[in-house]
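Structure first, sequence second, as always.
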């Protein structure tokens, strides 16, 4: 693609880019199937209402780039800083996340209220200063995933496992948890259960 390219409603299959720099590209309503972006730099790129299916993205370096209302299904996403793709937290980069595998992802100062993460795997990731009120993490493996200073009011963690939630810094009123995972929350308070 050339600089200043605009694509609307296009389908990209099997596209594979590694150690590339993409500049001034705009995609609207496009579909990406089985594509790979690894160690790629996105400069002033915009993806709006796009769908990513069976794609792999790893270690993206994003500068002045935006994702807006994009859908991800059966994707592997590694080392993604979502805050860098949401225009300063004013827009939602992700519309849906369906059966995806996320590892080393960062969600900072984002409004993800009511978002449904159910069925996706989120490993060794961080949610910090996010609004996750009424969000759903049902059936999510969350090993080594931390929640820090988040609003988890009414969030649903039933049948989720492996999460680390600091009881002192997160808002947890009306949040729902399953036994025995809920017992691990007490570890942070130094409480022993015999």
């Amino acid at each position: 693609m050339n600089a200043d390219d605009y694509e609307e409603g296009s389908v990209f299959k099997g596209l594979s880019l590694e150690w590339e720099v993409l500049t001034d590209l705009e995609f609207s309503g496009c579909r990406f199937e089985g594509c790979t972006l690894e160690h790629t730099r996105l400069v002033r790129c915009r993806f709006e209402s796009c769908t990513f299916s069976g794609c792999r993205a790893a270690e993206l370096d994003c500068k002045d780039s935006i994702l807006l209302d994009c859908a991800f299904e059966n994707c592997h996403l590694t080392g993604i800083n979502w805050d860098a793709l949401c225009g300063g937290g004013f827009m939602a980069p992700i519309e849906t996340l369906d059966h995806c595998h996320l590892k080393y992802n960062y969600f900072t100062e984002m409004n993800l209220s009511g978002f449904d993460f159910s069925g996706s795997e989120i490993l060794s990731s961080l949610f910090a200063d996010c609004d996750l009120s009424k969000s759903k993490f049902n059936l999510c493996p969350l090993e080594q995933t931390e929640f820090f200073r988040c609003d988890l009011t009414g969030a649903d963690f039933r049948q989720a496992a492996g999460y680390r939630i600091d009881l002192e810094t997160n808002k947890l009123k009306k949040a729902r948890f399953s036994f025995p995972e809920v017992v691990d929350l007490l570890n942070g308070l130094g409480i022993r259960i015999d």
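Margin note: Residues 74 and 100 are 5 Å apart (CA to CA).
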